[in-house]
Amino acid sequence: MYRLVINVGNDELVLRTFKILEGEVRFPRGRLYVEGGSIVAEAADAASLRSLLHTVMRALYVVEHIGEWKSL
After folding, report:
1. Residue 18, SS3?
2. Residue 65 has pLDDT above 90, yes or no
3. What is the pLDDT of residue 66?
4. Are 4 and 20 in contact (CB under 8 A)?
5. What number of helices (H) and strands (E) belong to the chain?
6. Neighbours of 4 (CB within 10 A)
């Protein structure tokens, strides 16, 4: 089992977004979930973990830009 933990601290928007994604990003070879102030990706193999990491980074990119727009 491969596991990647990304600490996002107390970023409420990121944590709420990934809490919603928990139910959506779940497949036989891996899953995403929120644990404390971190996003956790677990996968059965490296290729599946890479796919999950790509999903996390894409979602973080979008959430970060939404946060910037809200502050304007």
Report:
1. helix
2. no
3. 82
4. no
5. 2, 4
6. 16
H runs (alpha helix) in 5-45? 12-21
Pairing of strands 30-35, 38-43: antiparallel
- The pLDDT, as a whole number, for residue 48 is 95
Decide if pLDDT at 69 tops 90: no
Residue 72 pLDDT > 70: no
Give the CB-side neighbour count of residue 31, counting CA atoms within 13 A.
11
Note the helical H segments in the chain: 12-21, 46-70
Cα–Cα distances (Å) from 22 to 39, 64, 68, 70, in that order, read 10, 18, 24, 24
Return the closest-CA partner of residue 31 out of 39, 44, 43: 43
pLDDT given at position 26:
87
Q: Using the 8-state DSSP alphabet, how is residue 68 labeled?
A: H
pTM above 0.90, yes or no: no
